[in-house]
Amino acid sequence: MTEATHEIVVVGGNLAGVQISHYLLRKTIPALQATDKHQTTAYHLTLISPNTHLFYKIAAPRALINPTLIPTEKIFKPLTPAFQQYGESFEYLQGEAVDLDITHREVVARMYTARGGERRVKYDSLVIATGASTTSPLWSFHGGHGESVNAFRTLYRQLPEAESIVIAGGGPVGVETAGEIASAYPDAKVTLVGGEAGYLLPREKVAMGLKAEDMLEDLGVDVKLGVKLSDANASSITRPIPLSDGTFLSPSVFINATGPRIYNTSWLPPAWLDDSGQVLVRDAYFRVQTTSTSISAKNVYVIGDAAAGYKRTAMELDAMVPTVASSIAIDIMVERKLASQMRGSSLNGLMGLVKPFKKPYVGEQIDFKPARDTMMVSIGPKGGVGVRLGWGVPSWMVKKEKAERFCLELVDPLVDGTKFD
């Protein structure tokens, strides 16, 4: 007979929050239940997020070109149908986390429903997946998904008529966006303001950035290096656009692709955050670190862009999901004293509880092992630059693996959770 319910709360409903929720519901929770032969504990997961749709922002650089290449309905997918399969084990709350009550272990959410108001949601395990916000809604939610869809539609009207287009940002998003626009609108004057690093893709090896610069210039893009926006918050309507070298630009269209403006962590205790607002981690398994002995971070985890010290890539996120889930499982098992059933006392001994299950085992602490030195950056639909395990890859390989379809075949399995079957 079930005596208690363990409440798992995931805050943030985009790529990180959706994936960790599916993984927990499909793999971790069933395995935990299998270790509890007397069924003393039930499990319930609540997902809190202001958005009703997942935003597959990986494909945004091509989706912004026109409504036919990648229609917005291909990258904005409703969440409710995707989670109906879990029945009463799951609840979605449309709202925004605004505070955290550490004493009572409750998330305070401002509801985005017709009735509004606030709701307090009890947690035993808390996953922070709120990510970051960019200046432009082309790359992140600004509330729900409606503002992002409108930003795409605005570009559909503007780009075909634009004489000059400026993209700011020398990272993958800026490079991909410049390549897509220059390929689709070769008569427009396209300028990429690439930042102060002196080369594009500054998180990668210099050679990769130089190759990207050459490919963009072959498409007619004017690449400005050693200069950045004076105001990182410059929006699509900012004119003139001030640059760090004292010059100004006044293009027909301006796209700010400079990356995160703010991390969505203001609802968390400052003792859990670094100076940038990212969440501190105390180990390699994404358990949250606190800098205050009076503000506990017990059974609190972080995943995705909000985690301090990581590159914020899709490949890293893929590796984070099983690692975070394994941390939650182990902490639950230890807390429920399931470890006492083991012959040994170490965490590795928990493996004995779940021998019948396929990997990843619920009692195994899974290491975070993202693909090392691996990145693909498309530059138009015909190719791009990339590196795999530290080795450069040819443009045709980038075309096959990313540039042709922007990995759209991955969207539906991610949204409905079958990615983890």
TrEMBL record:
Family annotation (SUPFAM superfamilies): FAD/NAD(P)-binding domain
GO molecular function, one term: flavin adenine dinucleotide binding
Pfam families documented for this protein: Pyr_redox_2 (PF07992)
Recorded GO CC terms: cytoplasm
Gene3D superfamilies reported for this sequence: 3.50.50.100
Domain FAD/NAD(P)-binding positions: 7-311
InterPro entries reported for this sequence: FAD/NAD-bd_sf, FAD/NAD-binding_dom
Protein name: FAD/NAD(P)-binding domain-containing protein
Source organism of this protein record: Periconia digitata
